[in-house]
Amino acid sequence: MRTLGRCREEGVQSGHFLQSNAPFLGIRSTCFSRVSRTPIIPCSSSEVLRHPGEAARAPSRKELEEHRRSVGICLVNNSGLVFAARRVDDKHGTWQMPQGGIDSGGHENPMTAAVRELKEETGISSARIVALMDEWLDYDFPTDIRSHMTGSWTRYRGQTQKWCLMYYYGDEKEIDLDGHGEREFSDWCWMPLEELPEEVVEFKREVYRKVAQQFGPIIRRRRGQEQMSWWGGK
User: Which InterPro entries does the entry mention (predicted)?
Assistant: First the structure.
């Protein structure tokens, strides 16, 4: 039997369902970081992903001047589905994963930013960082979007993102799109990661394909393992 992932609109008790693969029980890592009130402590044994033969690379000064530094969050639940949401200003019915800027002061690392952004955008704190993609992924804003930008956004032609794979062990009652600053999303959904590149806005699709290529195999090869051995408990 195939597992179903629910898409839910705020205020609606039941939603439509998306099909996924067999049940998922977690991803192994030798060191975890809590997404909670406790601070994130980077650990050398965390799983860091990069393309074969590719050295670690931070954004160059030129790239930082042209692309806003940000994080992307691939949040996977116990069924192997990832969290996706629809922006309040979306006019095309697209879905995306949570993301947000890294504090420009330079004192916030990507993992800390991921924890903060996830909490601010979704209310979620019951999650753990499992893997951090070594590569920074860039996308450019289309001309029509840039033409409507104001303030500090006018300095950027796009965003450069560090992506985190995180495991969600909480109850869905914890998910709250209100009350955490300016509301980002109108509704949310659990869906298979491999489907997201076709559901996201077009100019982010290549980034999402790379995220699926990197994190998808981790999710698939860990299916069927006992939850406690994957996550080390809560």
Answer: NUDIX_hydrolase-like_dom_sf (IPR015797), NUDIX_hydrolase_dom (IPR000086), RppH (IPR022927)
Give the number of domains in the chain.
1
The pLDDT tens digits of the residues spanning 40-96 come to: 333 333 445 544 344 445 656 565 568 889 999 999 998 899 999 999 988 888 999
- Rg (C-alpha) for the chain, rounded Å, is 17
Q: Which of 170, 190, 223, 210 is nearest to 28 (CA)?
A: 223
Compute the distance between CA of residue 150 and CA of residue 19 in angstroms, rounded to an integer.
40
Task: Identify whether 61 is part of a domain.
Answer: no
186: left (phi over 0), alpha (psi -120 to 50) or beta: alpha
Residue 114 DSSP class: H
Distance CA 166, CA 129 (A): 4
CB 111 within 8 A of CB 40: yes
Domain-located, residue 204: yes
